[in-house]
Protein 1
Amino acid sequence: MHNDTERVLLTEQEIAARVRQLGEEISRDYAGKEPLVVGILKGAVIFMADLVRCLSIPVRMDFMAVSSYGASSQSSGVVRILKDLEHNIGGMDVLLVEDIVDTGLTLNYLRENLLTRGPASLKICTLLDKPGRRRVNVPVDYNGFIIPDEFVVGYGLDYNGRYRHLRDIMILKREVYTAKEDNENCPADDGS
Ligand code: 5GP
Ligand code: MG
Ligand code: MG
């Protein structure tokens, strides 16, 4: 286990099993369709890479990169688009894939933004859900795990850009981010 982590919350094997189930469910729901799977960089890339390979339907892939306005750990709800989609999603079935829904502000903003572009349908898939901190009720169609209000890293999720490569999802030691909070603002870095 990594030195900066408190304990493993979800093992590689638990994650893989759940991702397979999500893949089956999504494949059933989209039978006969070819959705555009949209990953939110960078946190969702590892989850999305595994998820699309558990699908039995054809898909296309695209990505967006976003960052919250301001450096504070309290998300303002206003999201800046750092990289937009390459596809025009008008008329497409879009499946938005995100690592975690916490306050819901990021996904809520993205959802409303994408809906203005006229997709045939828009659904949301998140690996993790921290319902304890929700501020906006964003409809999540597919969720891997509900987790407690702890700051987690690994399997794509970072703290200041680190730990994304870890295979398990782990709870970060509180001292790792409280020690830095004087000069660096938040557990979440830019670029989700
Ligand atoms: P929301 O807008 O739902 O509050 O924030 C979602 C974003 O906050 C996620 O995409 C992620 O970047 C970050 N985030 C929220 N909780 C965690 C967490 O426990 N660990 C990590 N690494 N990022 C988190
Ligand atoms: Mg982050
Ligand atoms: Mg994210």
Protein 2
Amino acid sequence: MKRILVTGALGQIGSELVLKLRKLYGADNVIATDIRKNDTEIVHSGPFELLDVTDADAMYQIAKKNQVDTIIHLAALLSATAESKPLIAWNLNMGGLVNALEVARELKCQFFTPSSIGAFGPTTPKDHTPQDTIQRPTTMYGVNKVAGELLCDYYYHKFGVDTRGLRFPGLISYMTPPGGGTTDYAVEIYYEALRSGKYTSYIAKGTYMDMMYMPDALNAIVALMEADPAKLKHRNSFNVTAMSFEPEEIAAEIRKHLPHFQLDYDVDPVRQAIADSWPNSIDATAAKEEWGFKAEYDLQKMTEDMLARLEQKIS
Ligand code: AKB
């Protein structure tokens, strides 16, 4: 049975992943940690500890005390926030990662951390972006993600830490909103469609980015962590995606359910520049071949589910 430490457990991924892992591996075997505490199921349904991931000793003590054998390191600043606070992003995203890798090395833990489509840049091929390609991002977040991928490779080759990772696209979910990302518009649009029937997008018409519905992202994490290590040729993060769309396409899908939904634009130059530097659509062949990645939700199926779930939540 696994004993899993999750950092950043109250964030967009963590708040759903912890519940899934507790169902799979037992509530007491998943130790959720975050720099803050709130009154959610994550905090009450199993062990929870306050943890600032830049505090290496605190992370080690929590991992050791709980005898963990797996670390899922999620705590990080997303792209737009990292761009407005680059030094804080460097310290948190890189400092937290190296601390978590060190704990994994010392306690011989399996290790997962997400990378992102943000690990690509303007000179990367934009369409069907390959697994192994040019990675020269122009954002602090991207610099962190590429350095993070290399660091995970390094810990695998140098120390034998069983590191695994996914390059996530924008993740869409109804439980916990993302914060400070470039792809967040694709979550906000559903909330606003239900609340006010209209949405002003900070991302311009015609801007394609990869996206994935949270259930597919969670299944991908579990499948990759369970995958036979002998089959993994890549230790840097795997490209994974479920769909690629631009604002007009998601609006058209929403109008199938809410015909009067209106979309207009007030483009934010910072987030638009980040989006423009990212691929239009990435190629997930390596993930499919090496550990059987598959996604269940396309734009149509996700929109049906998102609107139904959010309607229940908001009403
Ligand atoms: C962001 O927009 O920063 C994230 C990501 C794609 O990594 N959602």
Protein 3
Amino acid sequence: LDLGVLISGRGSNLQAILDAIAAGKLDARVRLVISNRAGAPGLDRAREAGVPTAVISHKDHPDRASFDAALVGALGQAGASWVVLAGFMRIVTSVLLDAFPARVLNIHPSLLPAFPGVSAQAQALAHGVRITGCTVHLVDAGTDTGPILAQAAVPVLPDDTEERLSERILAREHALLVHVLAAIAAGHLTVHPPTTVAARARV
Ligand code: GRF
């Protein structure tokens, strides 16, 4: 898999991908990491791994479509054929989705369709659910709404804080994202535009 990874901040999911590749557990290459924020710590993680980086700020573009066109241009030039949104805090448009049909993945820290959008872990605590988790899904035009590829459940403990719960979910995110990418790389999971998911084996 030739990956383009889009980030906005910490980049721990990016790190999980880089570590899995380095360990020979994921047959993929990260062709480019793009951040919409210049100071994103994830950019250092990419540089550390010798992966090309780019900063493309949404603030330098008049609208979402032209921002996405810049992303598509950079991703295409780098040779990416799959795109992973790994803590990328921007809503993407059909400009990106049409350039990579059924080839854009997102990782989200809840069991979708519960708790889409920001602060999913706080939403779970506020709602009092006993089980939450994380989801890897294909991205469509909505916010955290695309076809689900895989999920992992994480119990909410009685004395959980947002921070502790987020930490436990995050550990599962890293494993789940790598698991899905490895399944795609191995041909165990094939996805067809616009929304059909064909799993040859359960992932
Ligand atoms: C993760 O919780 C991810 O699910 C959400 O944003 C966070 C990104 O964390 N979309 P990181 O930048 O990968 O460390």
Protein 4
Amino acid sequence: EHPVITPFTWFGLDVGGSLTKLVYFEPENIPDDDDQSSEIKKAIRIIHKYLSGNTAYGDSGVRDTHLEIKTQLGEYTGSMHFIRFPTAAMPAFIELAKSKNFPLLATTICATGGGAHKFSNEYETQLKMKLRKIDELSSLIRGIHYMESINHNESFYFTSPTIKEKCQKLNYNFVHPYPYLCVNMGSGVSILAVTGPKTFTRIGGTSIGGATFLGLCCALTGCNSFEEALELASQGDNAKCDKLVSDIYGGDYKKFGLPGHLVASSFGHMMDPEKSKAASKADLARSCLAMVTYNISSLARLNAEKQGIENVVFVGNFLRKNTLSMRLIAHAMDYWSNGSMKAIFLEHEGYFGAIGSLLELIN
Ligand code: ADP
């Protein structure tokens, strides 16, 4: 069943393992629709105002205003808004949507991510809204290509990623992108080989992803949020927890070109009671971040190598506000490929699935 597109139905939903992403298109002028009663029109204006006039919704909903972008959808010009909340807060979101009369805007919402299946019944029984399920990886790729086509500043890369004073974030020109590898760093990780605007295969993945970083950090440091975990990691030193090559060799392992500062064994110091006692929460958080980030980089590089691909695009909310991981990835990709591979990042990092889902409305 195809959703009926009225001028008011512009939502794309991506219900992930950690975060729900809602992309909402606000037309510049809410067009008149003769089929709608004036009461409904009034209610619709109130909802539009609520969504675009606020930056926080309920206890945990946030609008990422810095990502807002003007665009054209079908025949309408307007702004795309980006809203997220923890998937665990879905019951509260459904209550909020009910109290704000959301079902007036749409009877069917295009939705992707595992939660589009998991919460399908709740939407139908509690909101009288149907979720039209869209495949998450197809949505992701569609969203990336769309955003790339409308936003000249979407993609970027880093030069000198390990030298803080020299490191620069530069615009990447995505004109001839194919083939490229897409590494989606969400709760878990999916690795896709993308060969054309609509052609890709999922070639790998790992369960050691963003939720592993956050879960381990919470368990080890008692922190309560992604922001807190990142803040701790930024202050820590992973060499306090990790065994480095130099801890084992006393220096570099020259024969195979492994520098002394390389991590030989993540958390390898923690079996030593004294070292374990000396490691701070920040050090533990930094080790978690380094372990997850380097592991994903390695898998990305190996898969790229196997496919003969040079450009690797990293997306997903694990990278949200996480310049530290982006720089580690940029360095690892460059270093281990002898400069032949490039790590590329995208500004709307975690929203592509929801964007692709929204685009189903204009087919
Ligand atoms: P999913 O679709 O699996 O939820 P995302 O791309 O949304 O995947 O990424 C989820 C990951 O993003 C989390 O595991 C965590 O590492 C990171 N993250 C970033 N911001 C937050 C946040 N506010 N709350 C929870 N996790 C966050």
